[in-house]
Amino acid sequence: xxxxxxxxxxxxxxxxxxxxxxxxxxxxxxxxxxxxxxxxxxxxxxxxxxxxxxxxxxxxxxxxxxxxxxxxxxxxxxxxxxxxxxxxxxxxxxxxxxxxxxxxxxxxxxxxxxxxxxxxxxxxxxxxxxxxxxxxxxxxxxxxxxxxxxxxxxxxxxxxxxxxxxxxxxxxxxxxxxxxxxxxxxxxxxxxxxxxxxxxxxxxxxxxxxxxxxxxxxxxxxxxxxxxxxxxxxxxxxxxxxxxxxxxxxxxxxxxxxxxxxxxxxxxxxxxxxxxxxxxxxxxxxxxxxxxxxxxxxxxxxxxxxxxxxxxxxxxxxxxxxxxxxxxxxxxxxxxxxxxxxxxxxxxxxxxxxxxxxxxxxxxxxxxxxxxxxxxxxxxxxxxxxxxxxxxxxxxxxxxxxxxxxxxxxxxxxxxxxxxxxxxxxxxxxxxxxxxxxxxx
Length: 441
Ligand code: HEC
Ligand code: HEC
Hints:
By secondary structure, the protein is mainly α. The protein has 18 helices and 4 strands. Helix 2 packs parallel to helix 13 and helix 6 packs across helix 9. One heme C (HEC) binds next to helix 15.
């Protein structure tokens, strides 16, 4: 990250704010805050205190079954090598509210170790309880992502870390320099920066330290990993059936594919973007796309970040970055490790349980959307199949979250027995509808 990148002035795309003030339809518990210059949606479920930097947050050992050792080493950038002291500095910063404009929000507020570095909310809530548009993904194993964010707008963890600090609904700083100034005012931090980087605190080193910490969050050792390593009793018969279905009738591996074609997947993503029809019906994406082209200069990282987090243009996904119509409403395929403990699901948190996710795929959601991935189709899965998929996904939980995983599985199963908002059996077992052609430009 260079100096121009980090000189993040409060250069807010005015269009982004116009959107933020206007057509917000998200959570019903929102009210409008009209006291500020710009109005932000405010959550009625306030952000809690910053979570403790506890044992779940410690850098992880590489001695876990399933860790891709070579890959883990290769994702460390040459200009930001891992050192224990740098990782410890990054860990402190990750939990430090002083990076935010009013001291109340840390990275860990939305990426809570006890919730596998997520926040359990449909969409994130930041400074002054302002509500964003997107669900907080886990930071576990984010080191392997070829691009960061649901739409891949940050190329590296270093680039990613600067954006929430200056986003007006996340940590609310006017620019990175003001976050650095807060840190530099603390003698202990100043001394640590000088020891680690041999210079005074500055934006580049701030995000480097945070990224180094995130690269220590390697999370494997799941029952599935032990199964893959040869322990045939590590997962249930149901999860084993789920693993077969995942690669056959479920077609999941078409996108949640593996880094290689061996039978030992380290990651469950192809590191690319697809439109899988998540709540696409809610948005009239084509006019929205034309508006975004007017409102946001191509490549303006800050304006894109704000559009993604603050405005309904969020639904455009990868399109905001590439401006290719084929990327409209495309989002990054997320890795599925620890997915049992990172509910709710999808970029907008619109699926409450893994059963809802399965119902979404089963009915081939979004088939009236001209930009839907051609891989999406009705799957004709029976209830028992769906339970098997969920059992497979539950087997991807790392040991630190074993208890939470068991509780979450029971909670979601219970909920799924009474609430299935995404289920549509007629469509799941029906023919694939004809997909409309994209409108001509
Ligand atoms: C207010 C809540 C909030 C705060 C504070 C926050 N994040 Fe996030 N984080 C999110 C949300 C929401 C996303 C997804 C946004 C998107 O994709 O557009 C995200 C995405 C990420 C990702 C990308 C993961 C992936 O799979 O693509 C990483 C890494 C990350 N955050 C780290 C951090 C760090 C480091 C900080 C502190 C400097 C931080 N976050 C502060 C909510 C938050
Ligand atoms: C065409 C590519 C594709 C296929 C096929 C596919 N997925 Fe996905 N999956 C994605 C993308 C892209 C997302 C994120 C979409 C979004 O949030 O808008 C996703 C999201 C998910 C999530 C939510 C994860 C989270 O952290 O929120 C789960 C769980 C999931 N998929 C499981 C599956 C399973 C199980 C199958 C097979 C039945 C499957 N997927 C098939 C691309 C795909």
